[in-house]
Amino acid sequence: MKKLQFGWMFKVWQIPDHSLIRPLSDPIVVLEGHSKRVGIVSWHPTARNILLTAGSDNLIIIWNVGTGEPLISMDDHPDLIYSVSWNRNGSLFCTTCKDRRLRVCDPRKREVVAERLAPHEGIRPMRAIFIRDGNIFTTGFTRMSQRELGLWDPTNFEEPIALLELDTSNGVLLPYYDADANMVYLCGKGDSSVRYFEVTEEPPYVHYLSTFSSKEPQRGMGFMPKRGVDVTKCEIARLYKLLDKKCEPITMTVPRKSDLFQDDLYPDTAGPDPAMEPEEWLDGRDEDPILISMREGYLPPKSRELKVAKKNVLDRPTTRRSMSTLDTNSLPPQLLERLLEEIQNLKATVLSQEKRIGDLENKLSQYTNGTA
């Protein structure tokens, strides 16, 4: 992002699918609209090119990146916005704010449709994410500065579905959600551990599963989409831990002895293709993500290993065909002519190399017999 005379702009870059073949020097689009620094960016989960940004100017802008135009602007937040999270189909998003309110917003109506004051009684920053069933998972602090997590029904904010105290650490808990497994990973700034929970429909609704611990504290954390995990190793999640001088991958795996594809671990997951165009979403259409199977990209470990096995040459199938038996009628004349020319050149090269090898063998035999 770069500061202008009257505001801030930020740029969107496109990274090639396979690899970088040259330095990226030009963004695909430059967006201008915020008067202060932008701290939050979030892509719409199902509509093409829809991007939400929130800045220190307490303003939320929704853009059509394909045209570089702002579509919706909302100024309902009187203070700094801590977090923004879309629901599964992108019809709503929830926010947490420095004014200690949790809000649910309908962007196309440009209004706040539900809000809760102080879902966590502490004054320190909160975070909130929509989960698969439409409920909202929050992290925050109690009045005594204990870290706390909560589960809320946005249609009834009076009482939480679940409220659980964790510990007395000072780091803000950052939640990362896996919609396929209905699991939440909690990573605290300055912590050296990652705790994960499962959200269910039965009490106590939020179930502690386990903790991953390491030696160095994290400065931040990133979460990779499910379609990037290695299903051959029963990997269900991969996080990227930001340290002072490096980024370290953390893999979460389920121990299984079988090499077969594990259907229960990998239900169909959200794919990369959008379910609708920007204009359709803006007109009021809602679509769930387009799901893809994880099985399609699966290769058993044995088939990926290179193994050399000596076989009896007599066992080879006799399916070779000579050039004269090929169906040359299906080839374009120019291509056929070029192929025949290349074959002639290859034959001439082979003959010249055979002659050269014969000359070298004669000279070698003369040296060996002492005649030279």
Automatic annotation (TrEMBL):
<dbReference type="InterPro" id="IPR036322">
    <property type="entry name" value="WD40_repeat_dom_sf"/>
</dbReference>
<feature type="coiled-coil region">
    <location>
        <begin position="336"/>
        <end position="363"/>
    </location>
</feature>
<dbReference type="InterPro" id="IPR015943">
    <property type="entry name" value="WD40/YVTN_repeat-like_dom_sf"/>
</dbReference>
<keyword id="KW-0175">Coiled coil</keyword>
<keyword id="KW-0853">WD repeat</keyword>
<keyword id="KW-0677">Repeat</keyword>
<dbReference type="GO" id="GO:0051015">
    <property type="term" value="F:actin filament binding"/>
</dbReference>
<comment type="similarity">
    <text>Belongs to the WD repeat coronin family.</text>
</comment>
<dbReference type="InterPro" id="IPR015505">
    <property type="entry name" value="Coronin"/>
</dbReference>
<feature type="repeat" description="WD">
    <location>
        <begin position="31"/>
        <end position="73"/>
    </location>
</feature>
<protein>
    <recommendedName>
        <fullName>Coronin</fullName>
    </recommendedName>
</protein>
<dbReference type="InterPro" id="IPR001680">
    <property type="entry name" value="WD40_rpt"/>
</dbReference>
<dbReference type="GO" id="GO:0007015">
    <property type="term" value="P:actin filament organization"/>
</dbReference>
<dbReference type="Pfam" id="PF16300">
    <property type="entry name" value="WD40_4"/>
</dbReference>
<dbReference type="GO" id="GO:0016477">
    <property type="term" value="P:cell migration"/>
</dbReference>
<dbReference type="Pfam" id="PF00400">
    <property type="entry name" value="WD40"/>
</dbReference>
<dbReference type="InterPro" id="IPR019775">
    <property type="entry name" value="WD40_repeat_CS"/>
</dbReference>
